[in-house]
Amino acid sequence: MLPETPAQTAGPYVHIGTFPYAAGLTIGWNARLHELVRDKEPGEHIEINGMIYDGGNAPVTDAMIELWQADTNGGFHRSSFPGWGRAVSDFTTGEWTFRTVRPGPVLRRDGSVMAPHIMLAIFARGVNGHLSTLMYFPDDPDANSRDPILSALEPARRVTLVAKRQPNAEIHSYRFDIFLQGDSETVFFNI
Amino acid sequence: MTLELLEGHPVHRLASRYYDRDLRIQPVRHDPLYASTLLRSPTHPPLAVGETIADLSGPVFGHLKPGPLDNDLIGNFASGGLALGERIIIHGTVQDQNGRPVPETLIEIWQANAGGRYRHVRDGYLAPLDPNFSGCGRCLTDRDGRYTFKTIRPGPYPFKNGGCAWRPSHIHFSVFGATFTQRLVTQAYFEGDPLIPLCPIANTIKDPRALRTLVATLDMSAAIEFDALAYRFDIVLRGRHATFFENRTEGV
Predict the structure, then answer these.
(1) Residue B222 contacts by C-beta under 8 Å, 6 or more apart in sequence?
(2) B91 noted as active-site residue
(3) pTM (2 decimals)?
(4) Is A76 inside a domain boundary?
(5) Which of A17, A84, A152 sits opposite B11 (nearest CB)?
(6) Which superfamily, per CATH, for B52-240?
(7) Looking at chain A from residue 34 to 73, which residues have their Cβ under 8 Å from any Cβ of chain B?
């Protein structure tokens, strides 16, 4: 078996290659990588935003965040829905945003059901190898309690993976702040 | 399924289809020598949870059809002139740990120019921007997992780390693989660069053999006469357990 190529930090200029618009470039990807849905996309449209905080409680303002999720029916690549997107923490405030659909529950090989959730991967300076976490929804308590990953965590750690509803008249909106260290350190997975 | 303890609780863990990441060859997360890690490294170790949605699938980019200059960083930002610096080819293969090529996977690269300056709104290093160089490129691997970029050898540059810290010449690589489990972001260094052993970031990888796999080697067989030198950088992504090759239930 060959050894895997090791990771290195994406560095502070990760945007040049992955989100060139944010770096000030007009080549490659367009500016809307964080929007996975157009108006007619089936399913419940949602918005997710949040911040990433470092161990000193300062917002991380140079991260690139990737999203990976199932479609509204819990499937992958069954329609034009990409399931994948990218966002950038605002260079001043650190705020990031995605627009997507609420994913459906996903079946595993053994028949167990994963509650609707979204995977997020963080790439940034000082992060040696991306950090992967899973965001669950606060309005699915029954599904969450049966989720094989979420239910295995200590309650105090489990809450770090559940987003909060926030008022928004136009779209169902969720807040998911990520803490790299400290008392409310987010659970990260070896994925 | 195996019964394991996760944070003190017995759980039925459904094994990942992929080999677990060998953390011994990966960079350490918290490294006093690389100051930026101090407040950005989680204190809990990453939890291994077996099969997740990252195992089941991943983004596909076969439809992307990169433009003819997307992998030519000398040409893709040229505005009436040529990029300055040492012209090079960097090429190689993407395969998994079982030696199987990874075809049609997206590779993205970014890098500084020949003077060590990034074309990024937040880079204010003394060296000037090159009007003909962006440092941004991408391509899909071919059906044998091969890729190639034409570019300029990036210059070294200093960075804030407390003291006199310099980055060796390096190119950032982002690779997707077939599922999100294989996702990799890393950096390629250049054979013979005396700054590699001094670099706090390169040396977050404590296993010298693992660090050597990030060093691109001079490859005169791929050099272009009177045009460009060539370097070879091969990439290995996580491999799948053999028992799952016969299992056709990809996705669900």
Answers:
(1) B89, B91, B230, B232
(2) no
(3) 0.95
(4) yes
(5) A152
(6) Aromatic compound dioxygenase (2.60.130.10)
(7) 54-56, 58, 60, 62, 66, 68-70
